From TrEMBL:
PANTHER family: ASPARTATE AMINOTRANSFERASE. Residues 47-357 form the Aminotransferase class I/classII large domain. GO terms for biological process: amino acid metabolic process. The keyword Transmembrane does not apply. Keywords: Aminotransferase, Pyridoxal phosphate, Transferase. InterPro entries: Aminotransferase_I/II_large, AspAT/PAT-like, PyrdxlP-dep_Trfase, PyrdxlP-dep_Trfase_major. Pfam families: Aminotran_1_2. Belongs to the class-I pyridoxal-phosphate-dependent aminotransferase family. GO terms for molecular function: pyridoxal phosphate binding; transaminase activity. It comes from Bacteroides luti. This is Aspartate/methionine/tyrosine aminotransferase.
Length: 438
């Protein structure tokens, strides 16, 4: 038995205790629990890269506004079901300032995090046309969104974008859309877990096909403008966050407070529905929602039923953060650019010790350094690599759980501390020695 930084018996005991038959299918929470247990048993610190939680303090602008709102008594009042007017205004300005898209304040709808935004979107999109009963995922993706559909009893299809970048994307998408059962397409950009960023030409294809087949695009911008290869931080000035909104009118942009503003705990985001989609009345709505527009079905039927709006004070926080960003007083991307710096250093260590980046390119360009990156090791499946790295005090999740067909792991940079680069270097040196590449 090779000597590893964490005694194998501790890791094996932690895994056995969780009763996990196939480690490659372990959820983020299970991996976190195994790492915590092995850390406690061994007394050796883990380099934790499994959770996608912001590792930074919350935006001070948001906290201040929220405290003031609470002191002004908003906690006793139900928030407007359409959303706080100031937030709707600022969200409309934000999409203009940072994406160069015109969406009326009416269509900018506060939600309790993007999670609620996708849940509500799935519910409404699934009712537009009874023949269109399936959501298409451009994977890899965020597993909980598929869980949302399972909870609703709705269908989905998925493909791994790995082999379908650039011009290969159109025929692949058409092979699904031409079946006539797809109501909406969803993807995140930048992507969780691969940090792939779809290029303009790919977004154009998605947009054109959405119009041609009359389907809705759910563009998940949870990692808004965090492609640090380009400075997207200056309001009302190019370059902007790339978007499908420039190529179709059938879209919802899901903007989250969680990562860009480190505001995950307050569960706040804004779902921005295009002007034409907001006003459209789909015949399929009559049965469940009545004769209402898409926007009204989203807000007055679904959101009203789900949570009757969004925490009042969190809406004040989000309004203040967006306002400060719109006015150029608060460069929110500067706060989170640390994730990119961490990814660059971590990737360099892994690459030097025989690892490779699994999702390595956006067409001809290396992927950006950001919140996540993907790693593989020759001759190991994602599940094997995940278990092996546990013995070296490194925890990350297998790509298996994300709709990816590739062998490897997703590593998240958010919890990395400064002293851990040396730790990782030392441990990966040993890993390489113990696992020679043949
Ligand atoms: C791609 C993606 N979408 C949505 C979310 C959830 O966002 P929120 O916290 O706004 O619900 C996450 C969080 O990890 C994510 O990675």
């Amino acid at each position: 038995m090779k000597k590893t930084p964490i005694d194998c018996k501790f890791v094996d005991e932690a895994i056995n205790e969780m009763h996990i038959a196939d480690l490659s299918k372990a959820t983020i929470r299970e991996v976190k629990a195994i790492a915590a247990k092995a850390e406690a048993l061994s007394g050796i610190e883990y380099i934790k890269m499994e959770m996608g939680v912001p590792g930074l303090p919350p935006s001070a602008v948001g906290v201040k506004a929220e405290i003031e709102a609470l002191q002004n008594g908003v906690a006793s009042l139900y928030p407007d079901i359409n959303g706080l007017p100031e937030l709707k205004q600022e969200a409309s300005k934000f999409v203009k300032a940072f994406i160069d898209v015109d969406i009326n304040p009416e269509g900018c709808v506060p939600v309790t995090g993007s999670m609620q935004g996708t849940y509500a979107s799935f519910m409404v999109c699934s009712q537009c046309d009874e023949k269109k009963n399936t959501i298409l995922f451009i994977d890899p993706g965020f597993p909980v969104q598929k869980q949302q559909l399972s909870v609703m009893g709705e269908k989905y299809e998925t493909f791994d974008v790995y082999n379908y970048r650039g011009e290969k994307l159109r025929p692949k998408l058409e092979s699904y859309l031409s079946q006539g059962n797809i109501s909406a397409i969803i993807y995140s950009n930048p992507n969780n877990p691969s940090w792939v960023c779809l290029k303009e030409e790919e977004l154009k294809v998605i947009g054109e096909l959405a119009t041609q087949y009359d389907i809705i695009v759910l563009e998940d911008l949870a990692y808004f403008a965090m492609d640090f290869r380009t400075d997207l931080s200056v309001p009302y000035q190019a370059p902007y966050q790339p978007t499908v909104a420039h190529y179709t009118d059938n879209y919802i942009l899901l903007i989250s407070g969680s990562k860009a503003f480190s505001y995950a705990g307050q569960r706040i985001g804004v779902s921005c529905i295009s002007n034409s989609l907001y006003n459209r009345v789909y015949p399929g709505f009559a049965k469940r929602f009545g004769n209402v527009s898409f926007g009204s079905a989203f807000i007055h039927r679904v959101l009203y039923a789900l949570s009757s709006g969004v925490s009042h004070s969190a809406q004040y926080a989000m309004a203040a953060m967006l306002k400060a960003a719109n006015e150029g007083k608060y460069n929110f991307l500067k706060d989170v650019s640390i994730y990119g710096e961490r990814a660059r250093k971590l990737k360099e260590i892994f690459l030097r010790h025989g690892f490779h980046i699994v999702y390595d390119k956006d067409l001809d360009e290396p992927v950006a350094d950001g919140f996540y990156f993907t790693i593989g090791y020759p001759g190991m499946t994602g599940g094997q690599l995940m278990k092996e790295l546990m013995y070296y005090g490194v925890s990350a999740i297998s790509l298996d759980t994300t709709g990816s067909n590739q062998e490897g792991l997703r590593a998240c940079t958010s919890f990395i501390k400064d002293h851990q680069y040396d730790q990782l270097e030392e441990r990966m040196q040993l890993f390489e020695t113990n696992n020679p590449i043949i």
